[in-house]
Write a structure and sequence with these properties.
194 residues; alpha+beta; Heat Shock Protein 90; two-stranded antiparallel ribbon; 16% strand; globular
Amino acid sequence: MDDLQLLKSAQLYQENPETKQNGVTLAGAMLFAPDLLILKVCPAHRTDLILRKVNVDRYDDRDLVCTNLIESYDRILAFVQKHLPDPFYLEGIEHRSLRDAIFREVASNILIHREYSSGVPARLIIEYGQVTTWNANRPHGFGLLNPDTFAPYPKNPVIGAFFREIDRADELGSGMRNLNEIWQSLRWCRSATH
């Protein structure tokens, strides 16, 4: 496929039903556009990555990410890898990076499930002993999430589908199951070492 066919097949280039004009969708711009174009089509888009361990009133390190979603994903993971340890963990006979598995889900969810019409920036804050995320979102339900009864609800299905195709996200709803499995593994590891 050429570039235009690829954009069309991914639903990133469509016809406006009212004007009958063809063009790149907001999702297409957010995934591929250069920074200046993203600033024009979605001026509030940014992800604030903050490290607060020593200077808790301000920050020790910060990366304000205002680029396309593919590059944003890479920068989020690079910031996490720079500031969080990756303890040794064996799954069977293979080493597995729990840090990368957890924050791969976090990074993709911050970008896929964001409400892009909101001016609230997404945030990932690393503090001593905890990581907090903030994301503008329109919830479709309230209360605690139960992995056994959880039903996924796609916020930006075109972006989500594209992230799955480029292996930056798994199947819809698998993040909850994946993080639950990692949590169970961590609990088992802690109980086995004590």
